[in-house]
Design brief:
The chain is α/β, with parallel strands linked by helices. It contains 13 helices and 15 strands. The chain has two domains: 268 residues, Rossmann fold (3-Layer(aba) Sandwich); 78 residues, Alpha-Beta Plaits (2-Layer Sandwich), CATH 3.30.70. The protein binds iron/sulfur cluster (2 copies).
């Protein structure tokens, strides 16, 4: 039976986090069950963008510190790395406080720049990945994720966090290739099997609700989650957030491939095991694009999915245009303008907009079906 641990921690106080992490790992048999002396261990926090920790966009630096100390305690050599969605690793790490922790703990921060090709013949969706080279230079990986909503994937936790192992704009290519949620989720499921983190930890002391993963609201949840099976950890995380965990795209795909246990088959333990909350849903949690064949989705995309709309508060920074995978956004008259014929509904623009100016508007069919409910 898969075990997922939920421990209580109501502040990011260094000692409180260390204690919660210790309890969590003890429930899983202790850190030495995962890390052996001499192991080089890549800690992969969520550093989507360089924002202060209180915005709840990135994994809190104290979570990174607690895991650094655990790995060192087991005789391992921790390294920290990510490829943020915006800006360089160094800049993002500086702003979100992770650089300071790395310096204080004397741990190397690795910018993901060099790449390596990793074939994956048995992949259900992807047969080859190009990943940050750091991945093959370490013995083990630990995912240190943030508990957040996600406009495209419903939630982002331990598995989605691994998408940061793809370097910079390589991420956009997957959005272009995988327009359907189930395909994108399939890619993430394959990615998790390639990277095989030995541990998945999710920072849910303060998570994010609503318009995640960047523009939602911080939500105090007072928990850390963790386990060996990332699909099980994320499934439980989604349930704690108040969603039907098994219907989240990544969970559904992992279940269909027998890689995830069912919710009823997961043993949930720890001081926070009874905590259940209600996170405001991301706008586009419900969509019909998974239920139809790809050509139909392509044809009816405007009606089946929520469409991104630029609000008047757009500050014309151009970030959405720079990151839109199919280059569907142009800057005109000091405002972003979307060409809906090109838009593939990946919501990268909503994810990255610093002014929360990308709103999602339901497509016609989706509106009708919701009204009929
Ligand atoms: S919509 Fe957002 S990201 Fe795009 S230009 Fe306007 S403010 Fe920048
Ligand atoms: S306009 Fe936004 S949702 Fe559409 S393809 Fe570009 S980034 Fe994705």
């Amino acid at each position: 039976m898969s075990k997922v641990v939920i421990t209580k921690a109501d502040t990011y106080d260094e000692q409180a986090v260390a204690l919660a992490m210790h309890e969590l790992l003890n429930q899983l048999g202790g850190i030495s069950k995962f890390i052996k002396p001499g192991d080089k261990v890549l800690l992969k926090p969520n550093m989507l963008e360089g924002l202060p920790p209180d915005k709840a966009v990135t994994t809190h630096p104290e979570i990174v510190r607690a895991m650094i100390r655990q790995v060192k305690g087991a005789g391992g050599i921790p390294l920290v790395g990510d490829s943020p969605g915006v800006s360089s690793t160094l800049k993002a790490a500086e702003k979100c406080g992770i650089l300071r922790v790395c310096q204080h703990e004397d741990v190397e921060l690795i910018p993901f720049i060099d790449k390596v090709e990793v074939p994956f013949a048995q992949g259900s969706t992807v047969k080859k990945f190009v990943l940050a080279k750091a991945y093959i230079q370490v013995d083990k990986v630990i995912s240190l994720a943030k508990m957040k909503t996600h406009s495209f994937m419903g939630v982002t936790g331990g598995v989605k966090n691994l998408f940061g192992l793809m370097v910079g704009t390589d991420k956009a290519q997957f959005h272009l290739r995988m327009k359907k949620r189930s395909d994108f989720a399939g890619m993430l499921v394959d990615l998790a099997q390639v990277i095989k983190p030995v541990l998945y930890i999710v920072d849910g002391i303060v998570g994010m609700e609503g318009h995640g993963p960047r523009n939602g609201k911080p939500k105090q949840a007072n928990i850390l989650l963790g386990g060996r099976n990332g699909f099980a950890v994320d499934l439980v995380m989604a349930e704690v957030m108040g969603y039907k965990g098994e219907t989240m795209p990544v969970a559904a795909k992992a279940l269909s491939l027998d890689l995830s246990p069912r919710m009823k088959d997961i043993e949930i333990v720890g001081s926070g095991s009874n905590i259940r909350l209600e996170f405001a849903k991301p706008r586009n949690l419900e969509s019909l694009d998974n239920k139809l064949p790809a050509p139909v989705v392509d044809f009816f995309q405007n009606q089946l999915t929520a469409k991104p709309v630029i609000a008047d508060c757009c500050i014309a920074c151009g970030r959405c245009a720079a990151h839109c995978p199919p280059e569907a956004i142009k800057m005109m008259d000091n405002k972003a303008v979307i060409d809906y014929k090109k838009c593939i509904r990946c919501y990268c623009c909503q994810e990255l907009c610093p002014a929360d100016a990308v709103k999602l508007q339901n497509g016609l069919l989706l509106k009708m079906i919701r009204r009929g409910k």
